[in-house]
Design a protein that fits this description.
Length: 200
């Protein structure tokens, strides 16, 4: 138990170096969230399962298409973004090609706060979450690639994640599973999601 507590303490003390705190911590829920289905978040960087500060990805789907959703966590504040530069998500394939996803223009960034909680008598501190929504032009082409590295470009800083061979396999499988989940849930809900009179 002491060993687990020590590991958790070290994780809680880790603050992502390129994050800068912003004053705005209001929660403005994007309207898009009401009309899409989104997969469970999956850990998108190597570390023990459920690592508290690691970035997570989701795949989402609405009538416009698919989205790659990236969540970055920080203890001291939200990630700052250069408003003059449209943030990008770059993914490098195993054959050296770069896949460039641009932010969805309508509601590209969502910021919210997750309250802290106790887990087995260990306090897990609150987290500032900066969520980036990237449009995927062709989901089949996107999933046909095998990714070994990604970079979240913020305009004035970036988050680089280079994956080992063993972890890249997990990452690519999780991408596919997330897309399948979002697709399956959307197929069962799309009538109600896109019908303004459903249940009225």
């Amino acid at each position: 138990m002491k060993k687990i507590a020590s590991i958790l303490f070290l994780l809680m003390a880790t603050v992502v170096c390129f994050a800068q705190e912003e004053a705005n911590d209001s929660i403005n829920k994007p309207s898009k969230f009401a009309s899409w289905t989104i997969s469970d978040a999956f850990q998108a960087e190597a570390g023990f399962a459920g690592s508290y500060w690691k970035p997570t990805f989701n795949i989402a789907l609405d009538k416009e298409g698919y989205y790659c959703v990236v969540n970055l966590y920080n203890q001291s504040g939200y990630y700052s973004i250069d408003r003059e530069t449209l943030p990008h998500l770059y993914l490098k394939t195993d054959d050296g090609r770069i896949v460039d996803l641009e932010m969805d223009g309508d509601e590209p960034v969502h910021k919210f706060y997750l309250k802290g909680y106790y887990a087995a008598r260990v306090w897990m501190p609150g987290r500032y979450v900066t969520r980036f929504i990237y449009f995927i032009p062709d989901i089949d082409e996107f999933l046909s690639n095998y990714y070994v590295k990604y970079r979240v470009w913020l305009g004035e800083g970036f988050k680089d994640v280079e994956m080992s061979k063993s972890y890249s396999k997990k990452f690519n499988n999780r991408l596919k599973d997330a897309a399948n989940q979002a697709t399956s849930e959307y197929e069962t809900k799309k009538h109600s999601l896109n019908n303004p009179l459903e249940g009225f």
